[in-house]
Design goal:
DNA-binding, about 5% strand, Arc Repressor Mutant, subunit A, three-stranded antiparallel sheet
DNA sequence: AAAATATATCTCGACGTCAAGATTCACGGT
DNA sequence: ACCGTGAATCTTGACGTCGAGATATATTTT
């Protein structure tokens, strides 16, 4: 492979902010432009990077959480409850919208967390169809520990960017996520 | 809920680029600052948005692809081969690094795509351990159709941003993905 | 008050993924 | 030629997710 040539071409076409590195999406886009010069594949520059980065983050998180004996899905549920504030309880339906999973999945997750003693299920006093899921003290501690570990890891990943760049990036991403989060989705 | 109050506070704290909308991550970060004022949760502003946006994109893509009778995982494999150029063939190992799945998963995917007649498995003439996966003509057509559909959908999502903003966003994301893509990962 | 519709949660079977191990073959050193 | 190490792919069993449907209770309509 002519890595060096590719990098040269890259820096001529599109000078990067500082001195940037090529990534897989650069290679992917270059391949499409070669194979399908009739198409405008610019959207991939943004959205393929989002998907691939998310995949990498999933793997990194799995590693970080395993040091605290938690799976990513467990972290998602426990921290949703933790964020709700005392008495740390939410309905399964509220948990659905926060974690973007289906109802069958959430039932299953609650079952397993309850078996591990990290949450407990209580009847909803105001709606007999409903249930409230409450964090146990141990569940709360585990969530807090894992959060600290996650933040440390994420800070390391974000060290690539300046403070201002992180702010810009957050703002741009918000513009893309807001329609999904506010309209039905 | 005091939606209106929250929005006011938001615009005072952190004026958005133009007039932006709140998203789920804004709510998530606000909740953490309330529950854990001792922690700096700024990293979540970026990386939680990446993960959530990826989840939304997965759902949107599933919908777009279903119009062409493809699953997202099928698209990933077929387009990897399509991008390779004629004769549209790669080893399973090369497909692994492009799609970020494990070898067992890839074996399974190739099996199912072969059963559907979209790819075929050939022995690698230069390495008897190896296999080459080749796109069939039908597989190639399906990949091209689905790509066009995907690009249309992604353009709609990205209409939220100006041309310049899309460029900025791509550049910032590249800085985060490059370490994963270049170092072992 | 009864009927129709909507909501909250759970059940269940199919499916895709992963991780670890097994197999088969390649390659360098001796 | 032989041996050991590493590489490429496949096999297997456990696991988590999804989606459709079932059940029970709320809410709205007539």
């Amino acid at each position: 492979m002519s890595e060096i040539l590719d990098l040269k071409r890259l820096h001529v076409d599109r000078p990067l902010t500082l001195i940037g590195m090529e990534d897989e999406v650069d290679r992917l886009v270059a391949a499409w432009r070669r194979e399908r010069p009739d198409l405008d594949v610019e959207p991939l520059e943004v959205l393929s990077r989002v998907s691939r980065l998310a995949r990498h983050l999933d793997r990194a998180r799995r590693l970080a959480f395993s040091e605290h004996g938690l799976e990513p899905w467990e972290f998602d549920v426990l921290t949703s409850l933790r964020r709700a504030g005392a008495p740390y309880q939410l309905s399964p339906g509220q948990l659905l919208t926060q974690t973007l999973v289906t109802s069958g999945t959430m039932t299953n997750r609650i079952d397993r967390l309850a078996k591990k003693g990290l949450v407990e299920r209580l009847p909803d006093p105001s709606d007999r169809r409903g249930v409230l899921v409450r964090l146990t003290p141990e569940g709360r501690d585990r969530a807090d520990e894992a959060l600290a570990g996650l933040l440390a890891q994420e800070r390391a990943i974000l060290a690539q960017l300046s403070q201002a760049q992180r702010g810009d990036l957050a703002g741009l991403l918000r513009q893309l996520t807001a329609p999904f989060d506010n309209i039905p989705g």
